[in-house]
Specification:
CATH class: Alpha Beta
Enzyme class: hydrolase
CATH superfamily: Metal-dependent hydrolases
Shape: globular
Cofactor: Zn(2+)
Pfam families: A_deaminase (PF00962)
Structural class: alpha/beta
EC number: 3.5.4.4
GO molecular function, one term: adenosine deaminase activity
Helix content: 40-55%
């Protein structure tokens, strides 16, 4: 890697130029610092820093808390400036533009409408405001010669009791940009089973579900996501590695066995929405260490789990998908073929019809081939 903003693979390919898919990307975790300042000023909200660069640094320092609960406190500021139609639309439009700049060709943006009602918006108005911004961002991309698809993942807060209401909201907007459902927030003590009625409804409606699990809680949370939530993907899911046992390690290699839950996730090719930098900040990988090389990402990848790479919260981690891929390439000596696997895994896991997922896979293959051919 050559600089803070340019991530080159050993063959000279710039990761920024590769087509990418983003599955785990929070809208309220992806605001530009300058936008936060302008929106806060418009509605009279105090901010900890008035300089964009210093505000960005403030988010980074606050989020290096080592636990999810403190990490989530920074969202008090971002959600506060996203309570109007204008604020939601602007943030969504800039979100799409930032995806395009990151080389993303398909993205899913997750957010919780129930957290954006303090200034009079209804749930439906909030969803429509975000969709308007997404469509404006897509139009911006087309005018500049780029192409991107973006779908909304409507999220319910797992500690609240609005799961069914939010699930019905998501289904109501399935023809207006919403592609799936999620639950998020403080994980420990709030299993997916609390929202079983919502998940039953979604299953009856044939509506895709991903669930935050295996980040701030362990295997029981993952099991609940899979069996109560019928999750097609695991939001983070990093702690599935707790169900992997090292049997022995010698000169010939390391031998492991998988527990029943890990085996289920692997055999059914359930994508793991791993977010390396965020997982370090929240302490999700504390059982294995505190540096990126300690992240079980590579173990999961080598064992054949469907690993995907994500940013989680761009603002809180000061990151991009390009950067996350670059950090992993450095830590585990990945090459362009490895990075393509992660994108193909994401394409297969996207909440799109089969034909659209196959088309995404073809675009990924062609883009990676072109990148290598250009360098050759």
């Amino acid at each position: 890697m050559t600089s803070e903003n340019q991530f080159l693979l050993p063959n000279g390919v710039d990761i920024a130029d590769l087509p990418k898919i983003s599955l785990h990307d929070h809208l309220d975790g992806a605001l530009r610092p300058q936008t936060i300042l302008e929106l806060a000023n418009a509605v009279g909200i105090d901010v900890p820093e008035t300089d964009p660069a210093k505000l960005g640094d403030w988010f980074l320092s606050q989020c290096d808390a080592g636990n999810l609960v403190d990490y989530l406190k920074t969202f008090d500021l971002t959600t506060a400036v996203m309570q109007t139609e204008e604020g939601l639309t602007r943030v969504a439009r800039e979100f799409v533009k930032d995806l395009v700049a990151d080389g993303v060709i398909y993205g899913e943006v997750r957010w919780a409408p129930e957290q954006h009602l303090t200034r009079g918006l209804t749930l439906d108005q909030a969803v429509e405001a975000v969709q308007a911004g997404i469509e404006q961002g897509i139009d911006d991309a087309e005018r500049s010669g780029d192409s991107i698809q973006v779908g909304q993942l409507i999220t319910a807060m797992r500690h609240a009791d609005r799961g069914l209401e939010i699930a019905e909201l998501a289904v109501r907007h399935r023809t207006n940009g919403v592609v799936g459902f999620d639950i998020a927030g403080a994980e420990a003590g709030f299993p997916a089973s609390r929202h079983r009625v919502a998940f039953d409804y979604l299953a009856q409606e044939h509506f895709p579900v991903t669930v935050h699990a295996g980040e701030a809680d362990g295997l029981d949370s993952i099991k609940s996501a899979l069996f109560d939530g019928r999750a097609l993907r695991l939001g983070h899911g990093v702690r599935i590695a707790e169900d992997i046992t090292v049997e022995r390690s010698d000169d010939e290699g390391t031998y492991v066995s998988l527990g029943e839950t890990a085996q289920w996730v692997k055999d059914r090719e359930i994508p793991l929405e791993l977010s390396p930098s965020s997982n370090l900040q929240t302490g999700a990988i504390a059982a294995w260490g505190s540096d990126l090389v300690d992240h079980p990402f590579d173990v999961l990848y080598q064992l054949g789990f469907k690993t995907t790479v994500n940013v989680d919260n761009r603002t809180m981690s000061g990151t991009t998908l390009t950067r996350e891929l670059g950090l992993l390439a450095d830590a585990f000596s990945y090459d362009i073929d490895d990075l393509e696997v992660f994108q193909q895994n994401a394409a297969r896991g996207a909440f799109l019809p089969l034909e659209d997922r196959e088309e995404l896979a073809e675009i990924i293959s062609a883009g990676f081939e072109d990148a290598e051919r250009y360098r050759d």
